[in-house]
Amino acid sequence: MQDPTPAAALEVERHAKSGASWEDVLSTATESEGDERPAPAQQALLLQMARWYETKLARPDLALPYYSKVLADNPTHDGALDGVANVYRKAQQWNELASALLVRADAPQTGASLARDLRVEAAELLE
Q1: What's the number of CA atoms in the CB half-sphere (13 Å) around residue 64?
Q2: What contacts 113, CB < 8 A, 6 or more positions away?
Q3: Are 105 and 72 in contact (CB under 8 A)?
Q4: H-only helix segments in the chain
């Protein structure tokens, strides 16, 4: 996948229908992952791959490494933090979920009301 824009992602989704097709798409995307591209484009590709693993293949466990790669480059990336929280929520990994929620709450781009809600949810989990 050369172009990780939302329009390109929709086009891929329109063509890939079966599990085998999605495995091919993700295999191709993984091969192009190492290509030289600007960091925002690389992060967009990794996030899209993670979302496809979650939604198209129902494999959130395989999505987690892609979210982690985005967070390695940008520890406060909101989309990746949200994705990690969703994976932990589905897997019922409550301690990890609470930690992810607190990191997202402390991120500079998180608004005050969302940060408060995230902290409340984390506190309820830790209680």
Answers
A1: 15
A2: none
A3: no
A4: 6-15, 19-32, 39-55, 60-73, 78-91, 94-106, 112-126
- Judge whether 73 and 43 are in contact, CB under 8 Å: yes
For residue range 87-127, list pLDDT tens digits in order: 999 999 999 999 999 999 999 999 999 999 999 999 999 98
Contact criterion met (CB below 8 Å) for 101 and 85:
yes
At residue 121, what is the residue type?
Answer: E
What tokens were used for 116? 């408060």
Q: How far is CA 62 from the centre of its chain?
A: 10
Distance of alpha carbon 50 from alpha carbon 25, whole angstroms: 12
